[in-house]
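Table 4 source record.
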Amino acid sequence: MNKRSLLAILLLSSLLFSCSEKKNQHRIIKLNQDWEFYSAIYNKSFKAKVPGSVHTDLFQNELIPNPYFGTNENNLQWIDTLEWIYIKSFNKPTNLNPDDNIELYFKGLDTYADVYLNDSLLFSANNMFIPLKTKISHSALKNSNELKIILNPIENEENKQYSKLPYELPGEERVVTRKAAHHYGWDWGPKYVTSGIWQDIEMHIWNIAKINKLDYTIEKLDSELAVINMNASIESSRDFTGNIKLNTPQDLQYSIKNISIKKGTHNYSFQIEIKNPQLWWTHNLGKPFLYHFNIQLFDEKQAIDSHTLNIGLKTIELVKEKDNKGESFYFKLNGTPVFMKGANYIPQSSFPGSVSDNEYKKIISDAKSANMNMLRVWGGGIYEKDIFYDLCDEEGILIWQDFMFANAMYPADSSFIKNIQKEAKFQVERLNTHPCIAIWCGNNEMDEAWHNWGWSANYSKTDSAEIWNNYELIFHHILPSIVNEENQETPYTSSSPLFGRGNPRSSFEGDNHYWYVWHDAYDFDWYNKVTGRFMSEFGFQSFPGIETIEYFDTSLNKNIDSEIILAHQKHHKGNFLINHYMQDYYPVPNKFEDFIYVSQLLQAEGIRTGILAQRRAKPFCMGSLYWQLNDCWPAISWSSIDYLGNWKALHYFAKQDFKNVILSPYLHHDTLDIFAVSDTLTNLNLNIEISLIDFNGKIINSENTPFTLTKNSSNQINKIILSDFIESNSPDQCFAIIHLKNNDQVMDSRTFYFTQPKNLKLSVFELDTQFKKVEEGYEIILNSKRLIKNLYIHMPQNGFLNNNYFDLIPGEEKKVFFKTKEKIDDIENMIEFNSLNHIISQSKN
């Protein structure tokens, strides 16, 4: 045999082996492209985007106006009353082996859907939160195939099921449907009862065996050794002897050889050890270290499937211990009590299928930038997509995860119970491996509503007992059992709050939704008077920025009570309450843009009062999660980041107030108590410098005191008698500036005023500005000889300001960085400013 013939044989053998290897490996083919949709009201089909929704597809095909614009919501309620059909043609995959298993995997269908392949019904779906997988035979596939999804009118399905109940339930018809509750309308979001394909569709092809899922539990964890029990669910078409190989970039390699893999689906457990393990911490306390494992399954010859798993080694504990004030409610991470700082997270869009990966990256980055270490995924939205939890793992942000039940009471017939059991089991299994998961919570505000909102009074004694028994079945038995079954280390709480308003225990036990401020119009000082053990909700509304308002309202003469503005203000007293509070604290501007600006200051100062009080109350209070981080559409709401991603004043304030080391001053009567709060895990030797300054920058009084700030604590470090400190100076014409220093490093600074902002004798000023082109943007250098309170910088270009709404101290230079990809030729004339000085001078005129 000559060399050329030998080479040809070797090449052919290589090609045959590579084809065989490809055939025997688990293949995933995405089926997201080339979809069309139609309904009986149209005589043709239109292009559809998957993932997406009917509403977004209609808009992209210019069949409806922008659902978020003007008052369009009112005219688009017909959409969910129709049947919508999605179709896709696809060819039979190449290189199919007769022994291949073929599966279609629908990761998210919203909600009542019948799925057909070549006119044969594969299954019917009825839960937005459960992916569905179905095997198909080779004979069911033709050379050319059609996949068809019929989305049935949600209203029709709900009426059928709801009419079978013996009584009406709080929440009405939506309680029988497993989809995002906020789609039916909320006090911050529109009513768009969506339908569609909101997550990926995939075809899975495998021959010998595949890994269905991987999970793990931590058997042992200390500074010297971590012992991890891993479990692989493997589905096999035959018996064989296999090997499992684990690789990780951290130079850890494991091989488990000669495993007897059985036909069918079985669990295979093995144990790995990591010496001198690195722990997963929240980003403010350490590194959120992840061990990145790639797990490969081999048969006798080759790798036939692989799976990746990121493991964060941590312990998490919810500590509920009786004490002389009630019962604690706080988290221990790796044995350390941690004060949780953050916000409540809602879906980023009313149409969740349209949210991009970049939008997920931005919102988690923005949360981390504001020094948040926990987000609460609220129970009226969705179990978020994988990327959300992956990012929180990577960035070191813990997740309080609600089950998707909110502000309603639910039925407990056998079909509903089976549905939610399947949902809960899938979601807990899916999220169980994420180190970011800190707690599972049964529902939002249902216990409180039943006992404190008068819901139970609407029923007979018999019906009331039955409804509450159904509640206890779901939230005190089924859900905690599923959580415990999957991971005994993950805490569970039945409802948020544990005790609601009207129950005195809410201030001394469990988590607290404190809404006396806002809903009951209590003044901001009540945040200082009432700090629960863990504040999981408290909030105040503001208007979004002018760009966001112009996204839905392009009218020239805008006002807060216009039809369009009120269509995007979903709280029935929202604008009234903003105006009411504004009169107490700030001058009320007549100009619309100024009203927007002051509303954001009002929100920011109010929530700052709460955050500082709650952190000051540490360790009695060990959590501060305000309502809410983000919006699902452009609106007047409680968010600190508006729908277009712009930071409101609140988010800039939270960035300072959630730092690890802060000052927390509190004025009551004639006394200014100054606290220093530390979340760091080491003691700090610090100085506190307090100066009394007039609005022209003259220092009237000052003092400097060294002290040791104990780790992970709150300490009162100074008490000032106001009359002695300001002496004969008028409180409306001076302020205190307080610096907390570690040697020459300023840990925190606070400007503190002795009267409400509306009473300050602020005057016009000359602002000296300089601009410098730097890498990735522009540096803005600011100076003033007079105090400028809450200086707001507005840049019409796309970009991000790292600081805004700050006080510019007389004689002190301030540098602000504007990050942008755009080149600005005339930045001096493009930049705009506003301030409380301007608002007060305008009010005088």
